[in-house]
């Protein structure tokens, strides 16, 4: 999504009304139940939230120069990796093995064998297809990507082939490297 992103791609910025901020906060709580205890820290009620729109129809939500969330058209709001590193409990997690790390950091989607091999990990509780997940790496503390499951984790375990997680953002992508003022 952000493979060719630069701050020059931002078309315009507007300040978000408080009524819209309340709706965003409600949408975040509905989408990510783990975010509720820390939502006031991530997005304070009195914060000045800026909406920046890009040429590719991506909306970036910015507080104090930091992109907190983004969304493509009417898809769900997705937290950035910086937010996920500060508050790691807001998304369900999957883990890739060491062999998949270099491919994930280059933007490749995650194949099922990279999630089911020794060193990888899938949660016992089934995560349905289409769910936003944090991608952890074997032996690392912080997540290296955020993606969307292409199939349920139960299907990933049983089929063990095909794309398991479609990457959205990853460490080192242009959104990670850029700052939007």
UniProtKB/TrEMBL annotation:
Its main location: cytoplasm. PROSITE patterns: PUA. One of its GO terms (biological process) is formation of translation preinitiation complex. It is found in: Cytoplasm. Keywords: Cytoplasm. SMART domains: PUA. The keyword Transferase does not apply. InterPro entries: MCT-1/Tma20, Pre-PUA, PUA, PUA-like_sf, Uncharacterised_CHP00451. Residues 92-172 form the PUA domain. GO terms for molecular function: RNA binding. GO terms for cellular component: cytoplasm. Belongs to the TMA20 family. Involved in translation. This is Translation machinery-associated protein 20. It comes from Smittium culicis.
